[in-house]
Amino acid sequence: MVSNLKSPIQNLQAAEYDCLADLNIYDSAECTRLATQASVGRHLRVTSNYQDAAVEVYLCEDDYPGWLSLADVSLLQRATLPYRAAIFSESEIKKLLPKVIAFTHKAMQQSNYYLWGGTVGPNYDCSGLMQAAFVSVGIWLPRDAYQQEAFTQPIAFPFRVAEGIAQLEPGDLIFFGTPQKATHVGLHLGDGYYIHSSGKDKGRNGIGIDRLTEQGDEVSRSYYQQLRGAGRVVKSYEPQRR
Q1: CA-based nearest residue to 37, from 132, 106, 130, 104
Q2: Where does the NlpC/P60 domain lie (predicted)?
Q3: Rounded CA gap, 74 and 48, in Å?
Q4: Whether pTM exceeds 0.85
Q5: Which among 68, 63, 60, 20 is positioned nearest to 44, based on CA atoms?
Q6: Residue 153 binned pLDDT confidence (cut-offs 50, 70, 90)
Q7: Contact at 8 Å (CB) between 145 and 131?
Q8: Disulfide check for 29: which of 49, 54, 103, 116 has CB 3.0–4.6 Å away?
């Protein structure tokens, strides 16, 4: 079986490739746990690190590392041009936010469930939905919630009072988690409402709308207790790896 898997990589080099189909990227060479996904048209860089059934890769748009099954190598094509990030001004991004929000509403209307590592749809994880929504208008965010928190412009205000929530604008990212790290993210819609993809352990399995309040339903209350802060997207991610 191993010999059959090796045949597609005979001409594979440590270089940049285009994805010819939606691909799963795993967090280890065993390819058992999804880390992220690469939609058709994305660029990835193959490294020289091979295991029996996988090769280590980096997604070019967000620098995200992972492992690609050797069974999917045939779905790669050597890139003719290297990936180059688009540059957006803060004002340009603000004009695009209604389309970002519309993407999340459309995603919610489709049958979906929470998928750890999901970025392609219809099934997303929390940060995957945020990344997909912004990239739908050409703006790249880092992959994970804690990375997105560090990437955005912080909005500092007293969340526990109505005056603080009023400082949020539609399109801001709201972060939840522990005092040490953001583990969840949603997109602010206005008036303290936000849309996000959450798991069934929080009372829902998929995309929904909740509110920053202690008086809401079970899901809203659960996340409100984990509120960390918020951030504003003012630029598009520029890759660091070359």
Answers
A1: 132
A2: 94-235
A3: 17
A4: yes
A5: 60
A6: very high
A7: no
A8: 54
pLDDT tens sequence across 162-220: 666 888 999 999 999 999 999 999 999 999 999 999 998 877 999 999 999 888 888 99
> Where are the extended beta strands (E) located within the chain?
16-19, 23-26, 34-38, 43-50, 54-59, 64-69, 76-78, 153-155, 173-177, 182-190, 193-198, 206-211, 227-232
Contact present, 130 and 141 (Cβ < 8 Å): yes
pLDDT in tens, 187-200: 999 999 999 999 98
Shortest CA distance to 219 belongs to which of 200, 237, 191? 200
CA gap 80, 170 in Å, rounded: 38
Residues 215 and 119: beta-carbon distance below 8 Å: no
Give 163-170's long-range contacts (Cβ < 8 A, gap of 24+). Answer: 165/191, 165/192, 165/212, 168/192, 168/230, 169/232, 170/97, 170/98, 170/101
Do the beta carbons of residue 151 and residue 143 sit within 8 Å? no
- Structure tokens of 171? 């399109």
Angle between helices 90-109 and 126-135 (to 10 degrees): 120
Q: Which helix (H) or strand (E) holds 128?
A: helix 126-135
Give the whole-angstrom CA distance, residue 168 versus residue 157: 9
